[in-house]
Amino acid sequence: MIKRTLSATSRFAPLLRAGLIAGVVVAAVAYPLVAVGGLGAKKGADAFNNMPSQLNVKPPAQTSYVYAADGKTLLTMFYEEHRKYVPISDMSPYIQQAIVASEDQRFYEHNGVDPKGIARAFVANHQSDGVQQGASTLTMQYVRMAQRDGATTPLEVQAATEQTSARKLREMRLALAVEKQYSKQEILERYLNSAYFGHRAYGIYAASEVFFSKSPKDLSLVEAATLAGLVKAPTEYDPATQDKLAATARRNYVLDNMQKMGYLSPQDNAATKQLPIQLHLSSPANDCISVPKNLNSWGFFCDYLKAWWVEQTAFGDNASMREDNLRRGGYKIVTSLDPNIQNIAETNVMAKEKSTSKFAHGLVVVQPGTGLVKAMAVNRVYSLDQSKNGTHSDPQKASKIKGNYPNTVVPLLGGGDMPGYQAGSTFKMFTMLAALDAGMPLSTAYNSPMKLVSQYPGEGPASCGGRWCPSNASGAMTGKHAMWSGFGKSVNTYFVQLEQAVGADKAVRMAERLGLTWRTDVDQMMAKPPRSKTWGAFTLGVSDVTPLEMAGAYATVAADGVYCEPLPVTSIQSPDGKQVTWKNPHGDVVDVAKPRCRQEVTQDVARAAADAARCPTGGKAQTGSCQEWSTAPSVTPTVGRPVGGKTGTTDSTRSAWFVGFTRELAAASFIADPDNPFNAVGDAQSQKPIDSAAQTLRDALKGQPIQNFPAPSPAIVK
């Protein structure tokens, strides 16, 4: 057997010396196939030379990082393969030396394919009548990983990883080309950023983080040798899940090779072998469910970010592609979430309603003029575990499923396809804006009885001979009102008359212009012409809406009529550090994180509405009379600066709202039972949204200069 081995090796000695490796490649790797098929080395070499020699390298999947508005506080990460590309200059010299010693000691001597390794592989394969050794160089391994990472179909993945001679030959052909295209250091950098180390850690950055909670540049000798030893068999040598004896033996093998290559002295090698493998494991966050426990409430904002992301054409042609891009694109995403305002909002919300309550109490804060979402707080724990949740409040479901409290991942504040909640009289803002937009002045006055026979069709208890007959919440509202007092006291019969004058369809269109969408079948049906002309109850807030939408709509008034789509990001950078762009509806290429704003109503209309909106908050309008009382008189004293807003309650107080705004911030707060909308929160709960919103505006703006609302022109006041 020894004689045969020497003969087989010596047969290729002239070729090895001459550097003519194609025939050797075929013979060494595919010897059994050649022998069985009767192929000669000549034909094999021809086939080898005709193989593709251009490696199609696609950027490997990388982890996307999501930060708060400060650009430092990490919310979470998104990935399929946890990887972050780092230049070799940011890697410890130890890991560079260790991976070469472990995987390819002749890396700096060969041109991508190692003739001596091939000869050894030939001997082993010839003796076993099979492919036992493949002589894979580090460059060939990189080629295999690049082909795997660039695969777009299961068949391509299979072709890139299958254990066949044909695959090995392709790798060799491509490795030769790669060595001509890249320097050794470039190949090593690409290899270390592609290799799998176990624990879903792809690349040296993730491996350093997962096993040692540090950066690659900070790896010690013993840590580098441990990681280098994992590449050959990540599961078998895993020191975190297996007996450390195997990992230690493999590490010591790497250290011995480093000594052989001159990277280590015998003394350093011996000393390092005495050190135990000391892990500092970390589990990198992935997706919204992994938001740190101390920032748990941020999970709901994260969920909104995901919902926004999959709607953006900048990230793909459909929702699936966009989510895949989020998990593979390696983005640095700086969100709009302000940690200070978020903490303030959460503190105020939780002080009013604990997470164990079946009633959801939440708050959204938006910046006028940009649409940036500064906070999203709700009295819930962001968690998938509902095993200890309370009883479902819908009697028909109580025996079958748990309620969504305290734990839930339901998007209660906006984003996604959540149905929302009826927002009551907060919708009167849309009627008032429509009227002002149509040229009706703030002084438009109507005698407002306790009950009104409207021009709209109606049925049921609120019907009077086939007409809808709305009534006021209190007899104290009866009398003559203009927009100031009608809005301040929330006089239903005033606003129905105002709606009749301008047209219910105009109020519906105004709501759409300010960002509202229709989620339920009934709302969608009623919002379409010609039914929208007869939707009299619209002004009383019978449509479902989210706090996010309402904060964005009222922010338009604070921003002098400029509506900005709610936006959860301030910056999105691709791995090359460039801002991600998209083509907007006007055909302009702009940053995807740039605020998307448009002038929806004139400056004067917005200022007139803001002036009337001072009345519900206990403030004073600059141009008219709020009369003697209002629905939320505590707001202005609490906020301590000019503030507008509107309360809203639904039939039987099934939900209660307050939407308020200053020049700097807009906040929408609500309380309702999302599991059972018919479960009334009760009148006693209606103050909670008022207080939460007012206190959040106060605390968030503490220390900032006071800004006054500009007065509207005399022409719109009259």
Helix/strand class: alpha+beta
CATH superfamily of the domain at 83-274: Biosynthetic peptidoglycan transglycosylase-like
Number of strands: 21
Say what the CATH topology of the domain at 83-274 is.
Penicillin binding protein transpeptidase fold
Strand order, sheet with most strands: 5-4-21-20-19
* pLDDT averaged residue by residue: 90
Helix proportion: 25-40%
- CATH domain class name of the domain at 83-274: Mainly Alpha
Taken as a percent bin, the fraction of beta residues is 5-15%
The shape is: elongated
* Rg, alpha carbons: 34 Å
Number of helices: 27
| CATH architecture heading of the domain at 83-274 | Orthogonal Bundle
Task: Give unreliable regions as ranges.
Answer: 1-23, 28-39
Main β-sheet: number of strands, strand sense, barrel status?
Answer: 5 strands, antiparallel
Distance between the termini: 110 Å
Task: List strands and helices in order, with pairings.
Elements: H1 2-11, H2 13-18, H3 22-37, H4 41-49, E1 64-67, E2 74-78, H5 93-103, H6 115-128, H7 138-150, H8 154-161, H9 165-181, H10 184-194, H11 204-212, H12 221-230, H13 244-260, H14 266-273, H15 298-309, H16 319-328, E3 332-335, H17 339-352, E4 360-366, E5 373-378, E6 381-382, E7 407-408, E8 421-422, H18 428-437, E9 446-448, E10 463-464, E11 467-468, E12 479-481, H19 483-488, H20 492-502, H21 504-513, H22 521-527, E13 544-545, H23 547-558, E14 562-564, E15 569-573, E16 581-583, E17 589-591, E18 597-599, H24 603-613, H25 635-639, E19 644-649, E20 655-661, E21 666-672, H26 687-700, H27 714-717
Parallel strand pairs: 1-3, 6-7
Antiparallel strand pairs: 1-2, 3-15, 4-5, 4-21, 8-13, 9-12, 10-11, 14-18, 16-17, 19-20, 20-21
